[in-house]
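Bug #77: duplicate submission created two jobs. Keeping one. Sequence:
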Amino acid sequence: MKVSFVIPFHNEEKNARPMLERVIKFTQAEDWNFEIIPVDDRSSDKTGKILNDFAKKYKFIHPIHREKHDGEVGNTMGKTLKEGTRKAKGRYIIWTMGDLSDNPKTYKEIVKKLDDGYDLVFGSRYMKDGSSGDLGFIKALLTKLGVLVLARGLFGIKVHDITNAFRGFRKDIFERLNIEANGFDISPEFALKAHKAGLKLGEVPTNYKARVDGISNFKISKMALSYLWVFLKIFTNLTKTKK
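Kept job's structure:
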């Protein structure tokens, strides 16, 4: 069994090195068969060089460098994650953020759930024993309400944190879903389409930690609108299908 870590980086020269070292230390201690796909998303700092330096040292690191395309504006995390996932060779994929916000102890629990037959497993900040940590109050409230009101109310999803991109899944199920989102909205879209397809969704508790270095691209207003659009679009399509 091989695990592929897909890690998005955008101007993360202060976090790239400790992030890669964190994943390497954890996976080697667990004696996993793994690879790391770090994706440099249009960085203008030294992030790309750091990733290349690591790739020269470790044969299991395979960086991707995304260049800015004409007309491409705003957040492109969705594009970044999709590109890294397509290149990944592992049976299991873990998306984990390059800003050091995700708890590496959760990696093992995610893989255990996948081994138990789950198709998609979320690192959940809002289930028992999970924590949103020092995540901003407004951001935490919006993401939690999105699950409670929309995901559960409209779709009947039982997991607690579908807006968190930190997750693991079988690569074959990702290839079956038509994921269209190119920004942060990839997180709920992936979850909703997996649920709609009848896939088995699971979750494990995780503790979130806000970035210490670098600047986040996360904008609450844009996030809220993009999440709402995804929920309504998929719900509308589902309603039409049932008629």
